[in-house]
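Take a minute with the sequence and fold tokens given here and flag any structure token that looks odd. Thanks in advance.
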Amino acid sequence: MSRNDFELPLTRSSEILTPGEARLAEPFFTNTTRSVVALKNLPEVIKGALFSRYSRTAKGVRRLFLDEFLPRGDLGIAEPAHVAPNVDAARAEDFYRRILSDYGDDSVGELGGAHLACQDVSQIAAKAIEHGRIGVSYLEKSSRYVPFDDKVNGQYRYYRPRQILESPCGVEYVATLDALFDAYARNLPRLIEHLTQRYPIAALEFENAQTGDVVRYAEIRDDVFSQSAQAAYRQAVRARACDMLRCFLPMATLTNVGVWGNGRALEYLLIRLYADPLDEIQTIARAAHY
């Protein structure tokens, strides 16, 4: 199957990497351009932390890694050496084939796993990906903590099926979804202002992480504690506003889904996605399988 069979139907990745950034990301990801990508050459604890942060940001997984993880020397991430990089993989694949052919036992698939990032996929596709739970864990971009009022290349983040866009309903589809996102973007700052006025920070209590004391904001005298309280307040107000405005977001809204699963569960995931009648979901299956 050629690369173009699924690259063109995929929603274009919202991540734009410079050639230098692509070179830095390449050792740790299976590709640097597509919206479906798997992680590699990273410790499991780093993968887990990366996916945890991934669900609370609008950034793609490669941009997040480059901005917040790779620069941190204390994480011990270094570019892997390019010495015989395929030797171990070839041996593992040969061993796997022999186990299957000689013994008919695919239980070895329970002992190996992978992290897969499905980015810029519709909510419908996200629910199809997340349908199975046994052997798989998911983290989806939170519509409570991540606002959806921004545009990528001048367009709001929603799925644009070619069949609909090329049909007589295409213009109406775009106009309707643009109107929903316009309403969301227009009301987000208004609602934040309203919540700020209704729940002023001076009337709230905050817990000091250092001492455990609960203090009313107006009584805080420590600058560090005061700044921490302000940051927590801003985050809480924005989360409340985003939560209240989720009713404007259609099922076409693009999201990111981080997936971890063992080999057998991921195989079953691909089978389910391939069998789905929607083109987007079948395209995601081909991109993940490639």
User: Anything to note?
Assistant: The two ends are 8 Å apart (CA to CA). Strands lie at 36-38, 113-122, 136-140, 151-152, 155-156, 205-207, 214-216, 254-262. Confidence is low (pLDDT under 50) at residues 82-87.
